[in-house]
Amino acid sequence: MIERTADTQPHSLYEDVSRQFNRAADLMELNPNIRKILAMTMNEVVVNFPVRMEDGRIEMFTGYRVQHSNANGPFKGGLRFHPTVSIDEVRALASWMSWKGAIVHIPFGGAKGGIQMDPADYSLKEIERITRRFTYALGNTIGPEYDIPAPDVNTNAQIMAWMLDTYLSTVPPHDRNRSLHVVTGKPVESGGSLGRNKATGQGVVFCIERWAEANDFSLDGATFTVQGFGNVGSWVGRLMQQLGARLVAVEDVTGAIAGAGGIDAEALTEHVAKTGGVAGFPGTEVIDSEAFFRTKADIFIPAALESQITSETAPWLNVRLVAEGANGPTTPEGDLILSERKIHVLPDILANAGGVVVSYFEWLQNKRSESWELEEIDNKLRKKMNRGYDRVKEMSDQYKTDWRTAAYIVALRHLEAIYKDKGIYP
Ligand code: NAD
Description:
Elements: H1 13-28, H2 32-38, E1 43-52, E2 58-69, E3 75-82, H3 87-103, E4 110-116, H4 124-138, E5 147-151, H5 157-170, H6 173-176, H7 199-214, E6 223-227, H8 231-242, E7 246-252, E8 255-258, H9 265-275, E9 285-287, H10 289-294, E10 299-302, E11 321-323, H11 332-340, E12 344-346, H12 348-351, H13 354-368, H14 374-399, H15 403-422
Parallel strand pairs: 3-4, 3-5, 6-7, 6-10, 10-11, 11-12
Antiparallel strand pairs: 1-2, 2-4, 7-8, 8-9
Helix pairs in contact: 1-3, 1-15, 3-15, 4-5, 7-8, 7-13, 7-14, 8-9, 13-14, 14-15
The protein binds nicotinamide-adenine-dinucleotide.
Nicotinamide-adenine-dinucleotide binds next to helix 8 and strand 7.
């Protein structure tokens, strides 16, 4: 049984991960030695570095890179630029990456990083300099066969292009052409993959389609709500709309809007690109956050930040499925309430793994000097997501447990097998 705590207050995200991890490890009787290893992160790098601002001032920044596990392959995970970035948050995000790779069977371990900053406070030129100086400060902490960053909250393909250029400028000329895969999520022209931009949203939607198929539920005419309308949320919105589903409420950092008749996700994406948020989108009603959570719909897709579905907000949800686009959107207390209320959850470490899957495809294309067609990428992604989904379902049936715990068990079994085969050096 999970103990209840005040999850609506700022709390340790890594403790949430530990509680999820311990629940699964107890149930599956994870080998105690392997449990000790996976309960901790492997390497934690903190860099404080100076950047010259446009007015000539020097400002100091703190950046992080936490590497949780490389048992399954090179460390892999996004970089986040956000005021809440802290060692605790990055630890949690890094370990979720380890579980993801193991669930969808891609040969990557887990890492995550970021800079504690609000990008809104800086000009584009300053963000470029911050990105480049951070990359330089990380030095050999990252590398194409060692630790491969990607975009996350407030970072994108442009940031990856600056990181790539900075990294390549620091390696000997002979190594440059074989180092393109040091970051993924690059612009297509600079070695990025078709389909990477939409990959996380696409993976969430593939998972929802699998769930709909299994539950004899038609997505055509279904209703859904989305929290966060950035990369993940806006792609989920557009792709669900293409399947005939209707977006009825959205919340982002600028506020929440509702439109019972349906909010056009394509037009909303253009509006967000122009104005920076969903607020002021014509033809919709402004609602508050509680009303957003209470909106009746078939599916809720959190695609913003962590700890959003809590002991306070979980009772408000009026949906039958939560498909987690964001990392860690549900606290352990929120989970208990969703389970009591029989609201099914497609957990983050399964549902949002599409991003890292297509990052893996990008990494492979770079290593082989290939470029794959979008159709091929989408087909391969669907297969990976479906197999991950089926593994989690099987484990949930076998252990008669919720899908989050089942997803952890899938991941931990995989990593346990690797450690059992390889042993510990020396
Ligand atoms: P993004 O920066 O593109 O978008 C973030 C969105 O969240 C924005 O719409 C922002 O307004 C909204 N938001 C921020 N604070 C909020 C708040 N307090 N209340 C409501 N909305 C708020 O980021 P993204 O890449 O779309 O990432 C979103 C989530 O998905 C994160 O949890 C991230 O870790 C996760 N994720 C992203 C990827 C990826 O490939 N980008 C992959 C896996 C998981």
